[in-house]
Fold:
Amino acid sequence: QVQLVESGGGLVQPGGSLRLSCAASTSIFSIYLKGWYRQAPGKQRELVAVTNGGVIDYADSVKGRFTISRDNTKNTMYLQMNSLKPEDTAVYYCNALRTADWRTNYWGQGTQVTVSS
Structure:
């Protein structure tokens, strides 16, 4: 059973920073920690940052402010979020792919990020 556990969300003022973590419960060789998505109230889930064969794609709205990284020794992926804006408020989810077929998706439970003064 694959589990992805996100943490690091919370309430932050505009201009502040947060670092989200996504820890995988299984071997890093059986899944690929692919990226981060978010879903704001009343909106569809959208891509924040994903890695594709070593190339990182960021949503235009977060370019220059968010950075994705990973520590394979810890089976963990991170999302450093700087210069946060109220419109970044959402539930953030990490996403992974099963390496056996590169099609099965796994999702974490999400972590709430609220940017407000």
